[in-house]
Write a structure and sequence with these properties.
Number of helices of chain A: 5
Helix content of chain A: 10-25%
Structural class of chain A: alpha/beta
Largest interface: A-B, 42 and 47 residues
Strand content of chain A: 25-35%
Number of strands of chain A: 12
Order of helices and strands of chain A: EHEEHHEHEEEEEEEEH
Oligomer: heterodimer
Helix content of chain B: 40-55%
Number of strands of chain B: 9
Number of helices of chain B: 13
Strand order of the largest sheet of chain A: 2-1-3-4-12-11-10
Chain lengths: 206, 303
């Protein structure tokens, strides 16, 4: 299995994810068309505008190939807009074409406009990754989505919570964050993802 | 170690990181000028990463003349209601009360813009005092760093708005990037005189020399009218493009808007750009920048 990580590069903060992953020793490639998916072992969906990414996913016929890879167990990690694209249900704009796979309901721009964007310390609880217990993770929330706490399917693990709402979740090989680890300067989440890919940890985990 | 331990008792809103963060999220996207909620919907459906709400597109501001000011709050609110993507609005250079009003309206980004009539010929807005992030225009590295020094969290090269002629956008982007490249190869002991020559804050000059780019996202504006123009600006160093009159002054705005969005994603793929550029209808007519006398150039507003 390839260790190269694809980063969806239709729009948004894809360069920041590539910088982070490179700092963790991972090979990355930008994904803009279906042929870019061949040869990747994992995929990152960056933050940006979910409506823009949705339209371009549709336009370049990327939704189905990504769904197929995810169904086969390919690890996929979405942040902010990436979380929206992975959510099975949206409280509003549920018709937005997207990838899905996470059994939960998300609310777009749930904290309000840009002046309500914020930073907050997060306690991340991942049993196999002791480094998260050392100190808080600086969560940067920008026009961020919310995951509704009572919407989670039985296979969704909550790895971090902020003000009662899950902000980092995992369902087998699918991981999503409401915040932007790629902007935090803290490599721990990317490192964990890269380690999980290299050890095959995420594959068939559920 | 002490820097690593963050004792956040509650969340902190509108930090520098969240301001720059929104600019990061707009990268690889297109920010479109819109004058009505209907335009805003067309822009959103086409895949715009954000819209700029204003009463007249720059081409009409240029044609109509007179004093050009901040838009009517009612019009801005209508556009905020119509779309879910970020909504930007323009204030006049130095008009910090227009900026305060736009902040109170909850716009997501303020453009302190040379497209409107300047309110102050000496001072720009002190942007560090605001919760809302600002974008400002520049023609070269010194101007970019002065605006960042005042607190701008995004820079766009000015180009020449409302012309549909890309030459000034190219000139400003090349000048900016040349300025950055020159700093990266300069010995450290020459950076203070570089700062003096650029009329820019020394610490920002040192930062640019170290990282080889602006410390905030760098977008392009002023004259982009076609997918090829957008791709050209991306190759020259832009991380996103603003398109003003180029879309809604063209024959088929919805089609052209989609095409420019796609061109920004695939700026490196000429075969895709060829397909994207096909059959878009009439582009905006435009005005050659060389036909404009110096006093008609908006880019010379601000310093």
């Amino acid at each position: 299995m390839s260790k190269t990580i694809g980063v969806l590069a239709l729009q948004g903060a894809y360069s920041k994810h590539r910088e982070m992953l490179a700092a963790c020793g991972a090979q990355t490639v930008e994904v803009r068309a279906p042929q870019d998916l061949s040869g990747i072992g994992a995929l990152v969906l960056p933050g940006g505008e979910s409506t823009t990414m949705s339209r371009l996913l549709l336009r370049w016929e990327l939704i189905e190939p990504i769904q197929n890879l995810t169904a086969q167990g390919m690890p996929i990690f979405g942040t902010c807009a990436g979380l929206i694209l992975l959510a099975d249900r949206l409280a509003e704009w549920n018709a937005l074409p997207r990838i899905g796979g996470l059994d939960l309901t998300a609310v777009r721009n749930a904290y309000g406009r840009q002046i309500e964007s914020f930073e907050a310390g997060l306690e991340i609880n991942i049993p196999e990754a002791a480094e998260f217990a050392e100190h808080a993770f600086n969560g940067i929330f920008i026009r961020a989505p919310k995951i509704l706490a009572d919407s989670l399917g039985g296979n969704v693990e909550v790895l971090a919570v902020f003000e009662k709402n899950p902000v980092l979740v995992r369902q087998g090989n699918i991981i999503a964050a409401a915040f932007h680890p790629e902007l935090s300067g803290d490599c721990r989440l990317h490192n964990w993802f890269v380690r999980g890919l290299q050890s095959g940890f995420f594959r068939g985990a559920r | 170690m002490s820097e690593d331990i963050i004792d956040w008792s509650s969340h902190q809103t509108s930090t520098w990181k969240t301001k720059i963060g929104l600019a990061e999220m707009l990268k690889g996207g297109v920010i479109m000028d819109v004058v009505t909620p209907d335009h805003a919907k067309i822009a959103e459906d086409a895949g715009a990463a954000a819209v700029m709400a204003l009463e007249r597109v720059p081409a009409d501001i240029r044609a109509n003349g007179g004093v050009s000011r901040m838009s009517d709050p009612k019009m801005i609110k209508g556009i905020q209601k119509a779309v879910s993507i970020p909504v930007m609005a323009k204030c006049r250079i130095g008009h910090f009360m227009e900026a305060r009003i736009l902040e109170a309206l909850g716009v997501d980004f303020i453009d302190e813009s040379e497209v409107l009539s300047p309110a102050d010929d000496q001072y720009h807005v002190d942007k560090s005092k605001f919760k809302v992030p600002f974008v400002c225009g520049c023609r070269d590295l010194g101007e970019a760093l002065r605006r960042i020094g005042e607190g701008a969290s995004m820079i766009r090269t000015k180009g020449e708005a409302g012309t549909g002629d890309v030459i000034e956008a190219v000139r400003h982007m090349r000048t900016l990037m040349d300025g950055i490249r020159a700093l990266t190869v300069m010995p450290r002991d020459q950076l203070m005189s570089a700062a003096r020559n650029l009329k820019a804050p020394y610490d920002l000059v040192v930062e640019v020399a170290r990282i080889g780019r602006l410390p905030v996202p760098n977008f392009s504006a002023g004259g982009v009218a076609t997918p090829a123009d957008a791709a050209l600006m991306m190759h020259l160093g832009a991380e996103s493009v603003f398109v003003g009159s180029g879309i809604f002054k063209s024959g088929n705005p919805a089609k052209r808007a989609k095409a420019i969005v796609e061109a920004v994603t695939h700026y490196n793929d000429a075969a895709k750009l060829a397909a994207i550029s096909e059959d878009l209808g009439e582009p905006m007519v435009g005005i050659g920048c060389d036909e404009l006398s110096e006093d008609k150039k908006l880019a010379s507003r601000g310093w």
